[in-house]
Design a protein that fits this description.
Strand content: 15-25%
CATH topology: Rossmann fold
Distance between the termini: 41 Å
CATH superfamily: Alpha/Beta hydrolase fold, catalytic domain
Number of strands: 7
Number of helices: 5
Order of helices and strands: EEHEHEHEEHEH
Helix content: 25-40%
Largest sheet: 7 strands, mixed
CATH class: Alpha Beta
């Protein structure tokens, strides 16, 4: 049985959903304090999936995929897909849904988007890249025109800028509506500018508007 996700319900009527995926060695509660509590979106319900042992897969995202790595990644993708399906079934199939993640959670969210499963209305990958290398046999079934916000930092020890840039290239090749931010010197964390962009995306969708990704840097 998969670990139980953390639900943070809207203060008012739920008008949008956000599935927010934690990083390696983290928890939904940390995502709540580090990200959710910094947002002002009273009409958004958050669902925060939980990895067993705090790890979605043991391999490093930037290493070539092995058979064991693929199996672990696919198991986590199935759990994430089940959490997203349950979120939609619980709160409304027709509500717009943002898939967001930090670090390993961002990588897992990117792999979900490329897998061909039902696409979210927007994807936010804080410090993310694809899992594996470009020579690996990986899916590229990205939804055409998917709004994606991808971030990175030259000072981040987990996701090098080369991997970030390769992810941006594959998103561009997949015809994503892409905005990227590299934040020089930013440690392995989520900066205020990144929070502002997530808030902009959630606010647009909750208001029934197209995603503009218009927050300033």
């Amino acid at each position: 049985m998969a670990a139980e996700a953390l639900h943070i319900r809207a203060d008012t009527q739920t008008r949008a959903l956000c599935v927010l995926v934690h990083g390696r060695g983290q928890s939904p509660e940390e995502m709540q304090s580090h990200i959710v509590e910094r947002l002002d979106v009273p009409d958004v319900t958050f669902v925060l999936p939980r990895a067993e042992g705090g790890v979605w897969y043991e391999v490093k995202a930037v290493d070539p995929l092995t058979d064991d790595g693929r199996a672990a990644l696919e198991a986590s993708l199935k759990q994430l897909a089940a959490d997203i399906a349950e979120t939609r079934a619980t709160y409304g199939e027709d509500l717009p849904l943002v898939l967001a993640g930090f670090s390993q959670g961002a990588c897992l969210s990117l792999e979900y988007a490329f897998s061909g499963r039902r696409a979210p209305e927007a994807l936010v990958a804080f410090t993310g890249c694809r899992v594996g290398v470009r020579s690996d046999d990986r899916p590229h079934a990205l939804a055409d025109g998917l709004p994606v916000y991808l971030t990175g930092s030259d000072a981040d020890l987990w996701i090098p800028t080369t991997a970030f840039c390769e992810a941006a290239l594959e998103l561009g090749e997949g015809r994503a509506r892409l905005r990227t931010d590299v934040l020089p010197g930013r440690a392995h964390e989520v900066a205020d500018a990144e929070i502002a962009m997530l808030q902009s995306i959630l606010t647009d969708l909750a208001a029934g508007k197209p995603v503009t990704m218009g927050a300033g840097r």
